[in-house]
Amino acid sequence: MSSVQSFALSPEQLFRTCDVNLFDFETTASLPDLTEVIGQPRAVEAIRFGIGMRGQGYNMFALGPSGAGKSTTIRQFLVQEAARQPVPDDWCYVHNFKQPDKPRALRLPAGMGTALRKDMKQLIDDLKIRIPAAFESEDYEAHKQEVERQLRETQERILASLRRQAEARGLTMLKTPSGIAFAPVAKGQILNPEQFQQLPPEMRNKIEQDMAAMEAELQAAVRDIRQAEKQAMEQVRQVNRQVAAVAVGQHISELRDKYAQWQQVADYIDAVGEDVVENVADFQPAERGEQPAPSGMLPFFVPHEPSFQRYEVNVIVDHAATQGAPIVVEDNPIYQNLVGAIEYKATMGALVTDFTLIKPGALHRANGGYLILDALTVLQKPLAWEALKRALRTRQITVEALAREYSLMTTASLEPEPIPLDVKVVLLGEPMLYYALQGADPDFGELFKVEVDFAGEVERTPENCALYGRFVATVTRREGLRPFHRSGVARVVEQASRLLENQDRLSIRFRTIVDLVREADYWASQRGSTVVEAIDVQQALDKGTFRADRVRERTLQEIVNGTMLIDVRGEKVGQINGLSVSGLGGFSWGQPTRITARTRLGHGTVVDIEREVALGGPLHSKGVLILSNFLAARYTPEEPLSLSASLVFEQSYGGVDGDSASSAELYALLSDLSGVPIKQSIAVTGSINQKGEVQPIGGVNEKIEGFFDVCRLMEGGLTGEQGVMIPRTNVRHLMLRPDVVEAVRAGKFHVWAVSTIDEGIEVLTGTPAGARDETGQFPEGTVNRRVEDRLRYLAERARQAGEKDKSADKEQDSKKEPRM
Fold first, then answer.
1. What's the distance, CA 615 to chain centroid?
2. Nearest to 225, CA basis, from 173, 156, 168
């Protein structure tokens, strides 16, 4: 039989020290920057594959724990690859002269978009000068006067003919403010209404008929005049076009030749030239159109408000200053920031828009390069995820006005020409999000075929420890911090193992490590040191705990002053100290909880009081069921379990979940059944299986330290008998605080590791558990023999009670039989 002391762990087993002799430097100032990626061979290979694979759908999803350096690592590779790639083209939106609501997209080499915008502005500025000058030439004036003369002669000829017809009918033609009128004449004098009424009826009738006939002739004359004016205006337009074409032609031709190799741009410039000729009046001085035309003269230009905005060039992507392929990180991927937007402006009480109000999105800026997005943020933004998938699936960027699809009212908007998309998208997210998308979204697997799986840990080897030193050197140099002494680096390495609760692994969730480096530098500055040493790293850890542990400190005080009942001395039957982990924010701590068990005669049920009152979670209930089956199978397997037991976490007012207390609950039951008391100076953690093996749990360091703090603060302090019993499989997870390790070294505190329930009950009671001999019996005086004897006693009592009940039933039945 092994002694209890054989289960005790040595101080060296409680914390794996990082030997400073592993490092061949005195301070990190002599170390080069870290260029390789620590412990991510799988992710690195996936990144290289994703970058090199050009097929559709080979976008990347980088999954891994927060702070694992996903973004930094991917950007490092993207920067290297992007520098070798060509700069993508510029993109512009211009007015569509045939369909104004469908702006055209123009593609130009990097930097040419801005050049085209400047050239178009210069063209319009030049035409504003050249066109008015052309219309002030003598030839144009002669043409204009000739057209006016011909129109005047036509007007006079028609009016003269109309006058002669009136005179032939005894009427005269008058020009009045309201137009032309006819009046009767007698003896060379116009008759007034009284004189007209004095005429004989026959004469009045004839005059009225003649006047009606002349009104009809007047209407015909007006139509002829209007037709003549229309013909004259068309002649003016032709002259204007000819003059404008001459004035515009040379400038348009020169600009077209400059952009001749880009057919779309050349076609656009031709369309601009045609529009200028058609709308040459826009280029005339405003005062010319505002001058009143002489009576009977043709107005060559109608007053208007000219607008030259349609000739502008909206450069939405400008790569004039870009080196290589673009790398875009969009931190706020709302729909508009992702695929672009069409903005509106208020004009005369209405919302209007045009192609100059088309704004680019991240996909436009990243086109031809790489776009990095946080997956969860994209999913949280309305419509953004569907818009991203649509763009990747169709391989084009379509800017749409959301009001058209989601508004109850119809709003005049634009339909810009889609832009071809060639981009590699990288999503960053947690593993659970990746697997959720794989299962829930059928498009996800087709669009993000490259899984970049980042690990959160790496093996603790001398080589990786050395890389850690270079990482610390890189951080301090990049952020202007003090160099680290090798003792400081060693303490950082030890904390990296502590973060994982694993002596053989190092955390590579570097966000936390970088924070520790910064804080240690601060405490070194407070100490007046020029280098950061282990004492500064420890100070950073201690102060970080102090800032966060107000609630833990209050909980400890409640235990010390007796509000929460915890015994750390003596022995009791059916009572044990279990351990749990609590957490708030990023800080977690362990604390003991009293667990009690009570047993009596029953029908083989173990009542989980936590579950009965809806405070127990499914994992805790699972642990209780496992220990119930362990009892039934191990003791008196040939007889029914005639036991009724109850388990409870005393003074537990919140939810309880997890099975890490199942071994403690079983120990309490065994103690109550056997009558063997449990040492209250020992706290227990660990789960069990149906074979009685103790299984590993999480939070082992916090649990040990939590009970240590309680024992230290209780009256009398550490007695040398106190300690924590853990699963042996958790030994490699131990990275305890220095004060706990020193207490163990001094014999004031202990940590025991067990593999089975039998080993555990021996540590807790000091009584051997006992193993069955060749006859199948447990030895006398052992815990297991006492438990089995108790269960057999309860089974016998249950059997006797059952027989008594049967006898009573028979006697009752006989009394009911009728007498003959």
1. 35
2. 156
Q: Which residues of 732-765 are buried (b: 16+ CB within 10 A; e: fewer)?
A: ebbbbbeebbebbeeebbbbbbbbbbbbbbbbbb
Task: Tell me the whole-structure pTM to 2 decimals.
Answer: 0.79
Residues 634 and 650 occupy one common structural domain = yes
- Collapsing DSSP states into helix, strand and coil, what is residue 508? coil
**Domain range spanning residue 716?**
553-795
Considering the candidates 424, 679, 703, 748, report the single residue annotated as catalytic. Answer: 703
| Same-domain check for residues 285 and 398 | no
pLDDT of residue 314: 96
Distance CA 626, CA 634 (A): 12
For the chain, what's the residue count? 820
Report whether pLDDT(393) > 80.
yes
Is residue 399 within 8 Å of residue 25, measured between CB atoms?
A: no
Say whether both 571 and 663 belong to one domain. Answer: yes
Q: How far apart are CA 347 and CA 345, in angstroms?
A: 6
Q: In this model, does residue 195 exceed pLDDT 60? A: yes
Alpha-carbon gap, residue 488 to 696, rounded angstroms: 31
- Known catalytic residue at 703: yes
CA distance 715 to 724: 19
Query: What is the SS3 string spanning 456-522?
Result: CEEECCHHHHHHHHHHHHHHHHHHCCCCEEHHHHHHHHHHHHHHHCCCCEEECCHHHHHHHHHHHHH
* Interval 541-596: pLDDT, tens: 999 999 998 988 898 898 889 888 898 999 999 899 999 888 887 788 888 989 88
Report if residue 149 sits inside a domain. yes
Residue 66 known to be catalytic: no
Q: 515 and 443 in one domain?
A: no
Residue 339: which residues within 8 A CB-CB, separation 6 or more? 361, 363, 387, 388, 391, 397, 398, 399, 400
Q: Which of 487, 580, 652, 660 is catalytic?
A: 660
Let me know if residue 482 belongs to a domain: yes
Measured between its terminal Cα atoms, the distance across the chain in Å is 72
Work out how many domains the chain is built from and give that number: 4
